[in-house]
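Quick note —
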Amino acid sequence: MADTAPAKKPRARSTAPKASKKERRKRLLIFIVAYRAESTLDWVLSRIPETISEHLDVEVLVIDDASGDKTFETGIAAQQSGDHRFPITVLVNPVNQGYGGNQKIGYRFASDNGFDFVALVHGDGQYAPEELPNLIQPLLDGNADAVFGSRMMEAGDALKGGMPYYKYVGNKVLTRFQNFVLGSDLTEFHSGYRLYSVKALSRVPYHLNTNDFHFDTEIIVQFFRAGLKIAELPIPTYYGDEICHVNGLKYAGDVTVTVLKSRLQDVELLYDKKFDCRPGTLEGNTHYKPKFGFRSPHQLAVDRVAKGSRVLDLGCAGGYVSAHLEAEKDCTVTGVDLFPLADGVTLSEFHLRNLDEGLPELDYAAFDSVVMLDVIEHLAEPEEFVDGMREAFKENTDVDIIMSTGNVAFILTRLSLLFGQFNYGKRGILDMTHKRLLTLASLKALLAQRGFEITSVCAAPVPWPLAFGDNGFSRMLLWLNGLACRLLPRLFGYQIILTCKPKPHLASLLKTTIEHSEERRGKAVA
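Predicted structure written out below.
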């Protein structure tokens, strides 16, 4: 059936600019952690300034951490009264979760309900809600991932606000220690007045943190390690008659252990999943770092290779050592690795190969030195690989093979095992990619049994400059660790470095024996 509707006239196109779509307002959750706060909670809620909602959609979450008093009922009364400016959600934990555990639940609530920012406020009134409009600004401007209110930015203000002198001194001493260990410059690590970007929180595993009071330190460490930016702004100090539930000595000890564990993870001495926040993965060789300028396998290998040598670098990783040899010692290097070279690194020759499949086809008689740093522990069958090396170099017994591996008998690994810990990590002796763990004795035995003569052995200390930077402190640690390595290398050596040569092959020995016998026989007959 034909369409009999009249034809529509074409509409004239407007040349006026289209109105832009209204930008979604950011959402802020004011999260009040409450424990035995029945006398102060309503007061804290009433102090939240209305101006905070000028550019934000604001809601309040109160979580009573199983207080045992009427904190929850006080929150419900405030929610139902209609006297407060913002929507209020009141929850109560059936079982006390602790200061850190309560924060975890609140941050998960913020994430699950689509908030952009979350502000941590204490239910006892110690931190002024009136400061919220000022503290949120760096987050709104995109200049920070977290904002901390600091009581220590203005000299003397904390004491004027009633902070006990012993707490003031303890705060200062701990903060200075934490800054020194972590290489940071915060004025205060111990303020509980904090605002976070929810997106930034999603980038750190805060759910793995302690439920205790040093949760606040652990999340700071995580933000630093994840490369997130923390801003500080001054806040007034208020100490009233609230009850302090923090054991100061225990807290100081927990904080100290936390920052030291983080730093020890940088030098691969310990591993804790909660501090595994740095960008990057185990894919390829990106998580391995060059170690030059101090006593390390990289530097020792470079020192042992003669200038102008022809070098085979087996398992060359990103090619850092090979490139150093070519640039600094005029060597010609052939690199072999499972992954491509790092960006910007070029070598005379490079072969992409999985060493678990054996050595590539090369002219092994042409090499003066072989560098094989931290490779043998990654091989599924190192004995077979070493047998293959012996066969490859049967006509080149003058080659120097420089090899290194982590020392699983290192003192901290022994102590960890003594206390039932054996944790693998991204790098170090217990690297997740390691397939065979070795000691100095087991490495020497493996090589000797496969026909190699060990010509030199030494131990390297922990790479302290990777954790603390190249400074006097790390140099002192290197010196002390190096001295211990010389005295007891099997115990204090973090890594083992040895040089070996292939002994003459049996076929070669037989040939030499026959030739020598013929020569002697000729003389005897004559």
